[in-house]
């Protein structure tokens, strides 16, 4: 960790606990800050609050007291999930108090260079791919952010011969000041979290934080196939590394049906890649570009492309049983993600889909249902999804009572060479605590066949 004196004696309010607030409070206290933690949850049963109080950190639970900012705080570090419409945050901005998320702390204290990865889709897969490439090449990577350990905890322990691979959300990127990754990756841009950001423009501007502080000494890897990201790249001062799926390009990294190219020169054959789908090819190009910039040897990169079959719950290959391949894409909580999953396969597919009914349309899936031979519908949307599927001309449609029933039913409608794909297109909360629990239920059911 850097020798940081700027926080010594500074009055800091940590707003919201969970993992990031808990880690930030610990770090700031170790740096000599005078820390107060304010969490909306009641103190009873709040394990994080109890632990901090035992260590002598002041904790205020059960809401935000009126006038809390009158105590002379110079900085607020807020949980990323707390919106900027929160009264304390609004008041802080009006008073000119800096409001950060903990990735800004990470940058301030870390001796190691940071690779920051953001995007509407694919950032977890890209982060994981890159981590494995760097690890095999013995670059001593540390994984941080949404996918791993809270980033400021990683930053505290990192040495200058490490590389921090940090997955950053739009929520986190709104709370930065000087955060500057050595390499920034922006995988793609689609509307998301508009209830938090207020508009498509607000969401995109938050994502653009990944490169806004970069200089001519840094690199910005971006999706050249999206005009919006080409426009944001023009605003970046960093060295630009575009990636494209639409044939060989002279600059950056690109792909056609046969090869991946680096600056227009064939680099690796696509035939070795195990991870299916065009959307995953985007992730592969972005991760490979960053690995090359970090000095990874080609064999380390190829090793990952040959062996990597997906992040858990994100187009994860589960098992092959009597010629049928099972894929777990439980993270697909919207039609955009399911559309990408369906496009990844040319083989006949049995689709398991459905979940929490938010009333959204499934029409976006219609052009991608051509290879679907049967559908097993789940959850609150089962009947509505069944009606949509039948309107697509698919006659083999069944409603399952639970995941085990769904997996057994799906298998009965397949033959060797078929794909069985869980890609729900809906959130999980009607039957499961989260998409991970839903995916685990699918895996357990597959393994029990």
UniProtKB/TrEMBL annotation:
Where, subcellularly, is it found?
Cytoplasm
UniProt keywords (A-Z) are: ATP-binding, Cell cycle, Cell division, Cell shape, Cell wall biogenesis/degradation, Cytoplasm, Ligase, Nucleotide-binding, Peptidoglycan synthesis
Q: Which Gene3D superfamilies match?
A: Mur ligase, C-terminal domain (3.90.190.20), Mur-like, catalytic domain (3.40.1190.10), NAD(P)-binding Rossmann-like Domain (3.40.50.720)
**What organism is listed for this UniProt entry?**
Filibacter tadaridae
Where the protein is mainly located, per its record? cytoplasm
Q: Which GO terms describe its molecular function?
A: ATP binding; UDP-N-acetylmuramoylalanine-D-glutamate ligase activity
Q: Name one GO biological process term.
A: cell division
Pathway assigned to this chain's UniProt record: Cell wall biogenesis; peptidoglycan biosynthesis
Q: Which EC numbers does the record give? A: 6.3.2.9
Q: Does the keyword Repeat apply?
A: no
One GO cellular component, as annotated:
cytoplasm
Please state every residue range assigned to the domain named Mur ligase C-terminal. Answer: 313-426
Give the Mur ligase central domain ranges.
117-291
PANTHER family referenced in this protein's UniProt entry, alphabetically: UDP-N-ACETYLMURAMOYLALANINE--D-GLUTAMATE LIGASE
Q: What does this protein do?
A: Cell wall formation. Catalyzes the addition of glutamate to the nucleotide precursor UDP-N-acetylmuramoyl-L-alanine (UMA).
Q: What is this protein called?
A: UDP-N-acetylmuramoylalanine--D-glutamate ligase
* Matching InterPro entries: Mur-like_cat_sf, Mur_ligase_C, Mur_ligase_C_dom_sf, Mur_ligase_cen, MurD
Q: Name one Pfam family in it.
A: Mur_ligase_C
Q: What's its catalytic activity?
A: UDP-N-acetyl-alpha-D-muramoyl-L-alanine + D-glutamate + ATP = UDP-N-acetyl-alpha-D-muramoyl-L-alanyl-D-glutamate + ADP + phosphate + H(+)
Binding site residues for ATP: 119-125
Q: Which domain of life is it from?
A: Bacteria
Check the record and name the NCBIfam families matching this protein: murD (TIGR01087)
């Amino acid at each position: 960790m850097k020798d940081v004196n700027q926080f010594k004696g500074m009055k800091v309010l940590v707003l919201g606990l969970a993992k990031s607030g808990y880690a930030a409070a610990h770090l700031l206290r170790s740096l000599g800050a005078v820390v107060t933690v304010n969490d909306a949850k009641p103190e009873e049963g709040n394990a994080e609050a109890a632990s901090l109080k035992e260590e002598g950190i002041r904790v205020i639970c059960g809401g935000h007291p009126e006038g809390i900012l009158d105590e002379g705080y110079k900085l607020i570090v807020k949980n990323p999930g707390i919106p900027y419409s929160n009264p304390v945050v609004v008041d802080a901005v009006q008073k000119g108090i800096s409001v950060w998320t903990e990735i800004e702390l990470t940058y301030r204290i870390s001796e190691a260079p940071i690779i920051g990865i953001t995007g509407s889709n694919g950032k977890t897969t890209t982060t994981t791919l890159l981590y494995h490439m760097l690890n095999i090449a013995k670059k001593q990577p540390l994984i941080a952010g949404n996918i791993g350990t809270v980033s400021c905890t990683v930053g505290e322990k990192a040495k200058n011969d490490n590389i921090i691979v940090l997955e950053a959300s739009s929520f986190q990127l709104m709370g930065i000041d000087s955060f500057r990754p050595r390499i920034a990756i922006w995988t793609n841009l689609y509307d998301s979290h508009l209830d938090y950001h207020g508009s498509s423009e607000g969401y995109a501007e938050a994502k653009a934080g990944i490169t806004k502080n970069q200089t001519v000494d840094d690199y910005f890897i971006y999706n050249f196939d999206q005009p919006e990201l080409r426009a944001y790249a023009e605003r970046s001062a960093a060295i630009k590394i575009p990636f494209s799926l639409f044939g060989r390009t002279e600059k950056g990294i690109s792909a056609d049906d046969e090869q991946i190219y680096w600056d227009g020169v064939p680099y690796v054959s696509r035939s070795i890649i195990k991870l299916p789908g065009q959307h995953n090819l985007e992730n592969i190009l972005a991760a490979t570009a960053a690995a090359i910039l970090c000095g990874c040897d080609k064999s380390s990169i190829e090793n990952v492309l040959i062996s990597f079959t997906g992040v858990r719950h994100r187009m994860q290959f589960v098992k092959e049983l009597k010629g049928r391949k099972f894929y777990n894409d439980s993270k697909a909580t919207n039609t955009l993600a399911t559309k990408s999953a369906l496009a990844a396969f040319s083989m006949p597919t049995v689709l398991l889909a459905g979940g929490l009914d938010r009333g959204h349309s499934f029409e976006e899936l219609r052009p991608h249902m051509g290879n679907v031979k049967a559908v097993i519908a789940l959850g609150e949307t089962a009947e509505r999804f069944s009606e949509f599927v039948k309107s697509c001309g698919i006659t083999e449609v069944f409603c399952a009572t639970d995941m085990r029933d769904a997996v057994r039913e799906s298998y009965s409608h397949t033959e060797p060479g078929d794909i069985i794909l869980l890609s729900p297109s809906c959130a999980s909360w009607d039957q499961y605590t989260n998409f991970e629990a839903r995916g685990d239920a699918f895996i357990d059911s597959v393994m029990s066949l």
